Amino acid sequence: MNETPEARIRALVRAELHALTPYHVPPSEGFIKLDAMENPYGLPKEVKDALLERLRAVPLNRYPDPAARALKARLRDFSGLDESFALLLGNGSDEILQMLLLAVRRGVMAPEPSFSMYPLISAMVGVPYRGVPLREDFSLDVPAMLEAMAAEKPGIVFLASPNNPTGNAFPLEAIEAIVKKSPGLVVVDEAYIPFGGASALQLLPRHPHLLVLRTLSKLGLAGLRLGWIMGHPAWIEVLEKVRLPYNINSLTQAGAAFALEHREVFAAQIAAIKAERERLYRALLSMGFEVYPSAANFILFRAPGRGESLFEALKRQKVLVKCLHGSHPLLADCLRVTVGLPEENDAFLRALRHG
Ligand SMILES: Cc1ncc(COP(=O)(O)O)c(C=O)c1O
After folding, report:
1. How far is the CA of 286 from the centre of ligand 1 (A)?
2. How many other C-beta atoms lie within 10 A of the C-beta of residue 195?
3. Cα(110)–Cα(131) distance, integer angstroms
4. How far is ligand 1, taken at its centre, from the CA of residue 98, in Å?
5. Could you tell me the residue ranges of all domains in the chain?
6. Are 111 and 163 in contact (CB under 8 A)?
7. Atom of ligand 1 nearest to the CA of 36
8. Cα of 272 from ligand 1 centre, angstroms
9. Residue 342 CA to ligand 1 centre (angstroms)
10. Could you give the CA distance from residue 248 to residue 65 in angstroms, rounded to a whole number?
11. How far apart are alpha carbons 189 and 175 in whole angstroms?
């Protein structure tokens, strides 16, 4: 008899993968979607038409520019990155996280709770992961981080600032204290920097083992899949070795370059999202929730004793947020809501009141 796929999988697939479940994205059709930190605004019609015109000229029969030179030049300008540093592009910043872990395999450390992909990608590529709890107010516990770093000598420390899912930005002094004592690389993940917090980019000249990661996803182009990482050319050269040659497709290269020529569109949307964030924050406070200040495009709040039931009640009313209850002890009864359009935020608040 033929060997079953299950038997052959048990024999051939890396043991740690058997216990892994693939990253789950809940179905959202028919929902007001406030669970994934997307920018709710699309492009204005005339900008979208101009984008489509630009994409028309892309030769899809040819491979993309493997070095994405034109796009890199625009991203350098957009980020204000000095010529003495280099940058590398990824199919979303997720892909860059994977490249980092393919290249540096001595162990990953990150404060917790933080972005769920840090432990997930570590498990995927077979690199040990260690989380160090944030303080109860979600501030960075620098002494605990330094102690854990001295004991375990991680190859990479990830610091998301502003942090997902807590929303707070870490002070640059705290980040620099960790960079100074790190025995490996420190990657500051600035996915939410368009919405608040000070950038660690200004620390690059003093710290050759620091890298800064960004993405277009939260800015308003999650569907394009484009992330970039910046830092010392020697480190970027290492990452180039684990980058697949055509990882940024031609439509993304052209679309992202176009978007960076229309920054004012995104700037206006970000200003609107920040104003709505403040309105939501105050409304949640006035409803008696524990609400955490946010420098991002989402808000974390706690409904003591009824986090899960509230999440379900919102879902019944067709509003999808993220339930974090059970994902970390510090997040008991916590929900995370992405700032949506004003009318979406109104619907969310109405559904909350209705309960
Ligand atoms: C902290 C953080 N980094 C990176 C990402 C992934 O972004 P991308 O869409 O560029 O893969 C996310 C997405 O939620 C995030 O929260």
Report:
1. 30
2. 22
3. 5
4. 12
5. 5-44+264-354, 64-260
6. yes
7. 14
8. 21
9. 24
10. 8
11. 11
Q: In terms of CATH, what superfamily is 5-44+264-354? A: Aspartate Aminotransferase, domain 1 (3.90.1150.10)
CA-based nearest residue to 298, from 260, 344, 329, 253:
344
Would you say residue 220 has pLDDT above 90? yes
Decide if 328 contacts 22 (C-beta within 8 A). Answer: no
Q: How confident is the model at residue 187 (pLDDT cuts 50, 70, 90)?
A: very high
Same CATH fold assignment for domains 5-44+264-354 and 64-260: no
Sign of CA dihedral 325, 328, 334, 338: negative
Q: What is the pLDDT of residue 92?
A: 98
Domain at 64-260, CATH from 2.40.30.10, 1.10.8.110, 3.40.30.10, 3.40.640.10 = 3.40.640.10
Q: Which residue has the tokens 């308003």?
A: 220
Within 6 A (CB) of ligand 1 lie 37, 92-94, 115, 160, 164, 189, 191, 215, 217, 222, 227
Contact in structure between 160 and 200 (CB atoms under 8 Å)? no
Q: CA-CA distance, 64 to 276, in Å (whole number)? A: 39
pLDDT > 90 in the chain, percent: 96
Spatial contact of 337 and 349, defined as CB atoms under 8 Å apart: no
Here the tokens at position 310 are: 């509230």
